[in-house]
Design brief:
The chain is 24% helix and 46% strand. The protein is built from 2 helices and 4 strands; from the N terminus they run E-H-E-E-H-E.
């Protein structure tokens, strides 16, 4: 009664533009399903918000400040029991500039 260890691929994407991120996620899922893999996701991960406060004027108006923020949107995709064709197609897949892709195999 030995259990066979299932192989998993975790793909984590992040971008400042959520529309660009969603298009990349849909192309990755479409490629994986076309190769015959079992896909779970996309799982929306928490958006990281970085805020910066700066002075509007350095001299007279010290109380007048301006705030800027950058939002980093993240998604995760899980592929279980991938075939070699799935791995090859994911490595050859091109994503647009501005989307960071991290692939973890276990």
């Amino acid at each position: 009664m030995s259990k066979k260890a299932k192989k998993k691929i975790q793909i984590r994407l992040q971008s400042y533009d959520h529309a660009l991120l969603d298009r990349s996620v849909s192309s990755i899922i479409e490629t994986a399903k076309r190769s015959g893999a079992v896909v779970a996701g996309p799982v929306p991960l928490p958006t990281q918000i970085d805020r910066v406060t700066v002075l509007r004027s350095p001299h007279v108006d010290k109380k007048s400040r301006e705030q800027f923020e950058t939002r980093t949107h993240k998604r995760a995709i899980y592929i279980t029991d991938p075939a070699q064709a799935v791995v090859d197609s994911l490595r050859n897949l091109t994503v647009p500039a501005g989307v960071d892709v991290m692939i973890k195999m276990s």
